[in-house]
Design brief:
Layout: E1 3-7, E2 14-18, H1 20-23, H2 26-39, E3 41-44, H3 51-61, E4 81-83, H4 94-97, E5 116-123, E6 131-135, H5 136-142, H6 145-151, E7 155-158, H7 160-163, H8 173-179, E8 185-188, E9 190-192, E10 198-200, E11 206-209, H9 214-228, E12 234-237, E13 244-248, E14 252-256, E15 266-272
Parallel strand pairs: 2-3
Antiparallel strand pairs: 1-2, 3-13, 4-15, 5-13, 5-15, 6-12, 6-14, 7-8, 7-11, 9-10
Helix pairs in contact: 5-9
Bound molecules: fe (ii) ion (FE2).
């Protein structure tokens, strides 16, 4: 076996041990994909992939998600997104600031949510900048049966407005006019996935529960986020330069611990397109 997986925590995370020259192979990618379904977050320590190599590995895992060049942070290499708060490179930092809060990618757009994201550390921040993952898969499995029954038929309403609600007070009219028009999407709270597992659709974009008084719905959503974020179901990755982390966007929320805009932190992100809708 050219690739081995070492558990990080009981319910989440595996470190990938693989010879560098065996990493970019179909066999390794398939083993990683299977492991991703089971463990939600994979860490390949200090892999130091180039953009081209990261794209190659992305393509081996699934269909690459295309990033257009007109979004803030678009990199010079097609489909590699630069994640940075550096004002010279990213004139619209609100997208990155929004990632300070637990979320799942793509829940307010009308396409299947991205399957997975690959993030590699090019320059790390001296303070903050850890990426944290909260497993909605393990969180759901750990809920008492009575709570599983309570949420089984609930439908969440997800909006861009809610996803930026923590930033609104700090945004200009121009920023608001750009960011707020968004599609409202409905997702079941419990995601009954094609592979037979169940996760949940939760995060900063979840505005309310359909048909439920606002406070009641928001209280349920908040409690479920807190439940998944408890130490047993979450993992905080402290980056070293060159690390590659891959996570299953269908089984976890993620967020970054705040870091400063002059930290130099630079991450390169690629993603795999969604392969299933939430219902
Ligand atoms: Fe994200």
């Amino acid at each position: 076996m050219s690739v081995e997986f070492e558990p990080v925590k009981k319910h989440i995370g595996s470190i990938v041990h693989v010879d560098r020259d065996k990493l970019l192979t179909k066999e390794t990618a398939q083993a990683c994909f299977d492991q991703l379904e089971a463990r939600t977050v994979l860490v390949i320590p200090e892999a130091h992939l180039t953009d081209k190599e990261q794209l190659t590995f992305t393509d081996l895992l699934g269909d690459r998600l295309n990033f257009t060049n007109n979004v803030p942070g678009a990199a010079t290499v097609n489909d590699v997104h630069q994640v940075t708060l550096d004002k010279k490179l990213n004139p619209a930092p609100e997208y990155v600031l929004g990632t300070f809060f637990y979320h799942m990618d793509g829940m307010t757009v009308a396409t299947p949510p991205p399957k997975a994201t690959l993030l590699s550390a090019r320059t790390i921040s001296k303070t903050g900048g850890q990426t944290e993952f909260a497993s909605t898969l393990a969180g759901y499995a750990g809920l008492p049966d009575a709570e599983k029954a309570e949420i089984d038929d609930l439908v969440g309403v997800h909006t861009v407005l809610r996803s930026v609600s923590m930033l609104l007070d700090d945004m200009t009219e121009e920023q608001r006019s750009k960011i707020l028009p968004g599609v409202v999407q409905r997702h079941p709270v419990v995601w009954k996935r094609k592979n037979g597992t169940r996760s949940m659709v939760l995060g900063s974009h979840a505005d309310r529960i359909e048909g439920m008084p606002l406070a009641h719905g928001r209280a349920i959503l908040t409690r479920l986020i807190e439940w998944c974020a408890q130490p047993a179901y979450s993992y905080s990755h402290t980056w070293k330069e060159g690390d590659l982390v891959i996570w299953d966007n269908c089984g976890a929320m993620h967020r970054v611990r705040p870091y400063s805009e002059d930290s130099g932190r630079m991450m390169h992100r690629t993603a795999i397109a969604g392969i299933e809708t939430t219902s």
